[in-house]
Sequence to fold (180 residues):
Amino acid sequence: MSPVNRRRLVIDANVFVSAGSDPLDAPARPCRAFLDGVLGICHRAVVTAEIIREWDDHPTKYSAWWQTQMASQDKLVPPAEGPPATLRDQVRRSATDDAHAEHLLKDVLLLEAAFGADMIVVSCDDEAKRRYARLAAESPHLGHLLDVAWVNPNSFDGVEEWLASGAKRSKRLTLRSLEP
Fold:
């Protein structure tokens, strides 16, 4: 794949947890196939100190092996730029209450990294996807979140083909696709 088609993907720790340690485990197959695809294709994984900490909090033999392989190929990269300075504060202020803010802020690190990359988050957390889509649709100052693609390998038929064809961010994959 040419460098032009390489994508910088932000991968949530829950993808590693879902990939599990046993390759014969049926629920692990979609996430493991996704991670194998990222490793085998020229895509990169975007990492920050927070993302690495989150990955380290959910270790598996497979995730340790995958991260080592990615690092040896220089495929773990920092965001091209820092996160939008006010994103965390905007999310916190836009939450309906403290519990809502806590849920949103748990995954804001993924969005922060995505803005410094190709605006693609890979996560198995569909509830977080719905929360962010709802928040962005209801908060004009967070409307830019609607352009982030949120891909769940467990529910995305054709994820391997998507990776192989360049992992393009399309409207059907963005938070905007969930707008009411």
The helical segments are 13-19, 29-40, 49-56, 61-72, 87-94, 98-115, 126-138, 159-164. The first helix runs from residue 13 to 19. The chain has a mean pLDDT of 90. The chain has one domain: 3-178.
